[in-house]
Design a protein that fits this description.
The complex is a heterodimer of chains A (241) and B (225). Chain A is mainly α and 241 residues long. Chain A is built from six helices and no strands. By secondary structure, chain B is mainly α. Chain B has helices at 2-22, 24-44, 48-79, 83-89, 94-123, 135-156, 163-191, 197-223. Chain B starts with a helix and ends with a helix. Classes of the chains: A mainly alpha (241), B mainly alpha (225).
Amino acid sequence: MKRFFPILSILTAILLAYALYQALVVVPTDALQGDVYRIIYYHVPSAWTAFLLFLINFVASIIYLIRRSPKVDIVALVCAEVGVVFCTVVLVTGPIWARPVWGIWWAPGDIRLTSTLVLWLIYVSYLVLRRFSTSAQTQVLAAALAVFGALDVPLVYFSIWFFRTQHPQPVIGGGGSMDPRMLRVLLINWLAFLCFAFLVCWSRYRLEVLHREVDQAHALESLAGAGMAEKASLPLSRSAP
Amino acid sequence: MNSLWAVTLATLKKDIRLEWRSKDALNSMLFFSLLVVVIFAFAFDPLAEESRHIAGGLIWVAFLFAAVVALNQTWARELRNQVLDAYRVSPAPANALFLAKAVGNFIFVSVLEALMTPLFVVFYNLHVLGPAWQLIPIALLGTWALVVNGTFFAAMSLRTRSREIMLPLLLFPISIPAVLGMVAGTTAVLTGDNPAHFYIVLLLTYDVVFTTACLLLFETILHAE
């Protein structure tokens, strides 16, 4: 498996460069928005990748709650971490695009904006829990929180959807059709981002596995050390009644 | 089933008796939300018409923060003398403990709301324009939405560093749809501009979904040590 890592890295780098070239040079400029629309090739693939990673996190969390396999837990952790990074990219590129096009940085009533923000908040709290927990069973707590977060998402979407229909706000042109050339570049970019995300997840997974092995070795070592100390102190405690 | 209700009732009685004698949670919540009300009144100094639009938000933010004060104390009491550990090894159903704690918190926060609402009316010169009775289901469902998840996450954050900070960090993101339902529903009733039915349905859905999730997962959380 390890042999494929450099090959995949090179392929991903080439694909990312090709996607960037396509997005910035080849694809035609939008008739209404001008060049600023090109941020879509970063914004939308990041969003799709983040949502996919969060979905994997949810599935892995459920499997973990049933099977309690440590590997599945590492998958959940890794997907949450990388997903938060991609989601941050979405939340940063969104306002950069919205400012010239909508005239505002942020539309609090917009459904996709707000649900993405809430999703981001939920997963940040997930990572905070994992960082702050002192329990030996952090994985169980985190998996339960992931389930709660996933249950929350449809409710968030539903509530804002109704909220918005009462308070009309500018919305991304839903229902509009896209030039096939643009769609093609969008999909190429998504593929490049997926490869990149997979690559990062993979190395993070290996890192986490090593991390846990080292932790375990340390724990065993200190246990062995404690055992020896106990033995060493035995004659002393006997000789001092 | 019988033992579930028996244990729930016994734990609930114990908690209410403890609270009645110490009044720790209720006093700290009351004073806390009073402070929030006074500070907001200074910060905004609204006219009657404006206050109708912002009061829904203010009132629920005050209750949300105050509820966190009570929720943080829910389990702390059981940690002393290893009560929670004793509970873990006892054959009593875990959900009974959860239900008792959640209902207890619900009662405390409801009492707080009943006491604080008149103060809000006085401070902000509120005059309800919509059907006022709808505020009751909004308040009941909204309070349950806060305390059911709050009790669960308080149990979850027991085994974390800086536990008191952890609870709002976990609770607030998940509570966003519920808070939106409470605030928007209350504002809808106060201003009488649009019907609040949707928000009541939203809160009801939220309550059903998360009460089920809490009951299904609480045992796992309780034993995750």
